[in-house]
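Hi team,

Below is the intake form for Phosphoglycerate kinase from Kineococcus mangrovi. Please confirm the fields before the structure is written into the shared record.

FORM ID: S-0412
PROTEIN: Phosphoglycerate kinase
ORGANISM: Kineococcus mangrovi
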Amino acid sequence: DLEAQLGGLAGQRVLVRSDLNVPLDHSGEQPVITDDGRIRASVPTLRRLLDAGARVVVTAHLGRPKGAPEAKYSLAPVHARLAELLEGVDVAFCPVTVGEEATAAVAALREGQLLLLENIRFNAGETSKDADERGAFADELAALADAYVSDGFGAVHRKHASVYDVALRLPHAAGGLVATEVEVLQRLTTDPERPYAVVLGGSKVSDKLGVIDNLLGSLLTSGDRLLVGGGMVFTFLAATGREVGRSLLEADQLDRVRGYLDTARDKGVQLVLPTDVVAATAFAADADPQVVPADAIPADRLGLDIGPESARAFAAALADARTVFWNGPMGVFEMEPYAGGTRAVAQALVEAKDSSGAFSVVGGGDSAAAVRTLGFADEQFGHISTGGGASLEYLEGRQLPGLDVLD
Ligand code: 3PG
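The structure came back. Fields below:
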């Protein structure tokens, strides 16, 4: 209970760290939010605090500016969307994060009002590796509030001032979103119902090594399944001796991936790789996409999605699973000719939940955006995480600074 943990909320200045890092399309005159999932997921905790009469100060990042203001990373479009979602609430925006102007804006806040501070990463102290510099910035942040609520789950793997250091300086608590995300991850890592199926995609196998190590090392057991697609799969296919043409390949990971193939076989974990792929002559929608066997990708082509036969096999491997975790698209889903694999996996997760009551989790970032872009609704899945890197690091078995600091 936030109220008890923080020693009362009414009239208190509560600093909330949210993750409002949403994808923006800058091609038009005004930036357009293409997936507002993280903003929507942040609203319940904010409402809870506002309803209790707190004076709510929200801090968040957008993108990766280098410690100084950059117009394209402004949270102004996020402020507009947040104000729509919090209809009836006075939602103000402060164009800086700390200092006189921020202090005055916070002082002007009344009970039940909210102030969103500009992108916290416009300040070098936020992400500094120097603990003193980060600490000095955290002091300034902490001076704006009486209590701190950590609700930006997507950023809890970052040892940043607003995620970590500020919690050392104020009475603090986890918000509802962080609590829910952690419960889901605990369910995925502590005695999950089996068969347990994990689907991994995305472009680089080197981003997923820690997760695969932990999956094959401890989380998956005999009868469980590991399905691999996306750009990273070509390193798996090459490791089994197949020609992958001009597909993405991380040659320096081949030995490690061969080790994974051996471990999976020894443990009885079924490793499901595509048997066909959609291959094109270039990274473009109109580059003559063709379905080719996974062991005969022509030398002048690159694979950009798993093929239809593979999509059926992936769906079959998910059909009777009791627990499913999916991270990373199967192909370049943003281009329709290469969206089939990702759509099929999303559909298979939906069916596994509907037909066998599987607990299905879509792990944040790109995968969450993918399922929404492809027209699926959040309610069709057991949980759509707001954390990409954060969920993966949790599944790697790592300590996350933003969770550790909350005890
Ligand atoms: C994310 O998008 O995964 C989170 O918002 C964290 O962003 P970061 O990877 O830039 O720290």
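SUMMARY LINE: The pocket of 3-phosphoglyceric acid is lined by residues 19, 21, 64, 154-155, 158, 365, 388-389 (CB under 6 Å).

Thanks, M.
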